[in-house]
Amino acid sequence: MFDDETSLKLNTGGTVYTNDIIIDMIDNNIFDEDLMEIARILSIHNIGVKYNSKLGNTVFGETVIDNNGKATIELNPILIQKLSTRYASRAFIHEIVHAITDNALFSPSNLYERSFQESNKKIYNIFNRLFPEELYTRIDDMYGLKNEAEFASEFITNRDFRSILYKKAQELDNKRFNSILRNFVNKISKIFINKSILKSNIEKLNDYEKSFNDLLLNKTPIKNGQVIDNIDLWKAVATYSNNKLSEDSIFDNFKTLSRQIDNIKSAPYVHIVP
Asked: What's this model's pTM, rounded to 2 decimal places?
């Protein structure tokens, strides 16, 4: 997934930065079409990335926040090698979003981040009640309701998860609720795109903010040529090695199993014997 220079630095214990990586991945068309817009937004952020070989088999990466509130992304080098570029690039985007939102949720340092923290908590609690865990397990489609941090990251990176939430909002047909959702999207935009990040280019700031809002409101249309027929699909699949596809599937199954075990452990009526 990474170029040779980046890989060498990571493998020798060095730190690389997300903006350089993302720009290189955009230039090399690594991302799927649905991730290109958010990748463009993330390319203006500069977060340190390191390898951590001690991460578990089901952990692609995690965000570590130091005592000064600075976030660093730690990635699993074994999974970077095993997983397909397509799968790993999506997971990488998820981790960058985590780094930005976790920093705001757990160590807010300005008005934008504190405002996002409050709004995220409010929206998460609303949907957590609308989709009770007894009926909707926090696995796969509803993993975003596992906690406030996962909610923020899944809302931003997972169009299908957003669609479920927007559909529920439509069913309720509540103007105030829809207004709260739109306000939440604006709060998200402000922590990803603000004057402290794009200091001198107001036009670019407005352009990024509008496109990001449209993305989060699921307004971004499917572009011509993005939908492919079955023959093209099989040609695309054939470009991946069978081993990579197998590893993606195995990793997904491990993640699902791990989440199921976590759910069982957290159930109030279950006692885990060591």
From this structure: 0.76
Does 258 reside within a domain?
yes
Q: How far is CA 110 from CA 69, 77, 106, 253, in A?
A: 12, 34, 12, 39
Range of the domain at 193: 4-266
Instruction: Sheet with 16-17: list strands edge to edge.
Output: 16-17, 48-51, 71-75, 61-65
Angle value at C-alpha 264, between 261 and 268, nearest 5 degrees? 155
- pLDDT tens-digit profile of 137-188? 888 789 999 999 999 999 999 888 999 999 898 888 777 888 888 899 999 9
Q: What is the pLDDT of residues 115-137, one digit of tens each?
A: 999 999 999 999 999 999 989 98
Question: In total, how many domains does the chain have?
Answer: 1
Structural domain includes residue 243? yes
Contact between 146 and 132 (Cβ < 8 Å): no
**274 within some domain:** no
Angle at 121 between CA 254 and CA 192, to 5 degrees: 80
Assign 269 to helix, strand or coil: coil
